[in-house]
Every structure is written in structure tokens, then in C-alpha cells.
Design goal:
The chain is mainly beta. It has a domain of 77 residues. Helix content is 7%, strand content 50%. It is built from one helix and 21 strands. Strands 11, 12, 13, 14 and 15 form a five-stranded antiparallel sheet that branches. It has a four-stranded antiparallel sheet with strand order 7-8-9-10, with no helix packed on it. It has a four-stranded antiparallel sheet with strand order 16-17-18-19, with no helix packed on it. β17 and β18 form a beta hairpin. The radius of gyration is 19 Å and the shape is globular. The protein starts with a strand and ends with a helix.
């Protein structure tokens, strides 16, 4: 969820009871922007790996009390600006799919790391994808009918104009290969809303729900104005 007053993302949650959807609440907040929370369960515990590229760190949160209390338990890749990262366990090995921005705010390269003991080792075929249209991740990588599917957001003509679903053909410490299966655009999504959307960012699901992150056109909002005032006051205090 995005705090427009502070102009940064925080990790939020809402409770769903049948058709009743609760208000958004804050689960975890950091000093800088957080987004793309990759959530997973391991040995009955819940974990989140959020994007924290502004803090130049990739870290793991463990639920002390799900879903509203989290504590940092691991920190990886300090000094790197990694965005929209997911973990994949395949045939007994652990992999990290991510984008290393280095400088700037976008990249055409998708990077793969392989877990070796306590370290993440860069895959020998990096970058495994080189395309603004199909490199940046758009949700968790999931298994479907014995196929491993990687979701990517198309950023060639803007921020997430559509989503691509890629079947991973080969994934091991020596090889990576994939092929495009399907593309979903805004016209494929039926939304019961009068809102107008201009982009789509992520796709995720569980046994009960499918979730697609849609983007509104940029608008001037009162919170944006308050944010400018808030930033000016902070500068004056320094």
C-alpha cells in the first residue's frame, strides 16, 4: 500500500470475510519505500521478502504474529538495488530471480542467483533475459500442470502495460531457458468499477483468490500536495 503523505510504500494487509473486505492496515513499515512483497510459508511460519531497493538491501521478514507483526531475520545483497524479486525452489535447489538496477530506475535484464550454502551465486548465463518487455517480474513464479511459470510485467512502453506468462523449460545451475505461453492485457480483465486503469503490475493467486494489481492514471491528489509541504518542513528542520 502507498502512503501518499510520506510518498513511500509500506506493507499493508486487509481481512477478507466472504464478500466483506476490510480496511487496509499497516503490517510493516521501513525508513524507505517498500513494495512487491513476496510472501511464502516455510515450516509453518510465514515470511515476506519485500523490495527495498532504495535501502540497497534485500531482506527477509518473519511473522512474529501473522499478519500484523514482523521481524527481520535475514539480510542479503547489501549495497545492491534489487527490485521485484522472487524465490524459486526447483528440484531441490533454491534460486533468486531479480533485477539489479545498478543506476537508474529501469533495466532490460533479468538476473538469476543460485543458493550455495549461505551465499547467492550469480548464474553463469546472466542475464537470463534481456528485454524491457519481458524481464521485470510480475508476481510469484508458480507451478501449473508440472510446468514452472514465470510472470513478467511488460515495461517496454511504460510501467506494466501487460503481463506475460513464460514457461520455464530448463532451470539448473548451468542452464536457463523459457518460452512465452500467454499475454494478458487490460482488455482481458473485467473489473466491476468505474475507475479507468492504464496499466497492470502483478498477478498472484492462492486456492481461493486471484489478485491483479492495476494502475490508475497519474492524478494530482491532496496528499501529493501535503507531501510537498511535509518534505519542505523536514528540510527546514535539518
Amino acid at each position: 500500500m502507498f502512503d501518499r503523505l510520506k510518498s513511500k510504500g509500506v506493507i499493508g494487509y486487509r481481512e477478507i470475510d466472504g464478500e466483506k473486505v476490510g480496511e487496509m492496515k499497516i503490517a510493516y513499515e521501513a525508513n524507505r519505500h517498500l513494495s512487491f512483497p513476496f510472501i511464502f510459508k516455510h515450516e509453518e511460519n510465514y515470511y515476506i521478502m519485500p523490495e527495498y531497493s532504495e535501502g540497497k538491501e534485500l531482506f527477509i521478514l518473519k511473522a512474529a504474529h501473522f499478519p500484523d507483526k514482523w521481524e527481520k531475520v535475514e539480510s542479503w545483497m547489501e549495497g545492491k538495488r534489487l527490485v521485484d524479486s522472487v524465490l524459486v525452489n526447483h528440484e531441490g535447489d533454491n534460486y533468486l530471480l531479480t533485477q539489479d538496477l545498478g543506476t537508474g530506475y529501469s533495466s532490460e535484464e533479468l538476473t538469476l542467483f543460485v543458493r550455495n550454502g549461505d551465499e547467492w551465486v550469480s548464474h553463469r548465463e546472466n542475464p537470463i533475459v534481456k528485454s524491457y518487455a519481458n524481464s521485470r517480474l510480475g508476481g510469484k513464479t508458480f507451478a501449473d500442470k508440472n510446468q514452472l511459470i514465470r510472470v513478467a510485467q511488460d515495461c517496454e512502453n511504460g510501467y506494466g502495460t501487460q503481463l506475460h506468462f513464460n514457461r520455464i523449460i530448463a532451470l539448473n545451475e548451468f542452464m536457463y531457458e523459457e518460452e512465452l505461453l500467454k499475454t494478458i492485457s487490460l482488455k482481458d480483465v473485467n473489473v466491476d468499477s468505474k475507475e479507468v486503469f492504464c496499466g497492470m503490475h502483478t498477478y498472484n493467486f492462492d486456492e481461493r483468490y486471484e489478485v491483479i494489481d492495476l494502475k490508475n492514471p497519474n492524478k494530482l491528489r491532496i496528499c501529493n500536495i501535503l507531501n510537498v509541504i511535509w518534505r519542505a518542513i523536514r528540510k527546514l528542520k535539518k
